Amino acid sequence: MTKAIFSDWIRNLNVAMMMCNRKVLLLFYNFSGHILDDQNFSNIELLFLPPNTTSKSQPLDAGIINCVKQNYSKLVVKMLDVGKNLNEITLANGIELLCQSWGQVKDTTVINCFKTCEKFE
Rounded to whole angstroms, how far apart are CA atoms 76 and 80? Predict the structure, then answer.
């Protein structure tokens, strides 16, 4: 996401909200692409979360993504162990490995990540 893409998107959303006669509040983290020079919109209010709160409020960042990455890495190593070259791994193979990696995430991992997030305590 770049500042230009985000700016275009948010302005288009504001026009759509004006046409629907709706007002919305959007929550964002402090990513540089989300910080706009002009943040005054007629039908949208932007609220930025405090810095360094992502892992406390988002279960995926609390450990689920890391677990998927570890599973993925193990699967790639297994492919290399059976003689496959990294250059032989296609996009389709990568997506298949990602699906397998997600399938190996234990229910308890997901539950524990939600429990560690402050908003779920």
Answer: 6
Decide: 59 and 114 in contact? Cβ < 8 Å: yes
Tokens read off for 8? 């275009």
- CA distance to 71, 112, 114, per residue, from 108 (Å): 15, 6, 10
The closest alpha carbon to 110, from 70, 69, 59, belongs to 59
In 3-state terms, what secondary structure has residue 25? strand
pTM of the model: 0.56
Q: What is the DSSP letter of 42?
A: S
Per-residue pLDDT of the chain (121 residues; tens, 9 = 90+): 788 888 899 999 999 999 999 999 998 877 777 778 777 899 999 888 887 776 666 767 768 888 999 999 999 999 888 888 888 888 998 999 999 999 999 999 888 887 777 554 4
CA separation for the pair 2, 19 (Å, rounded): 26
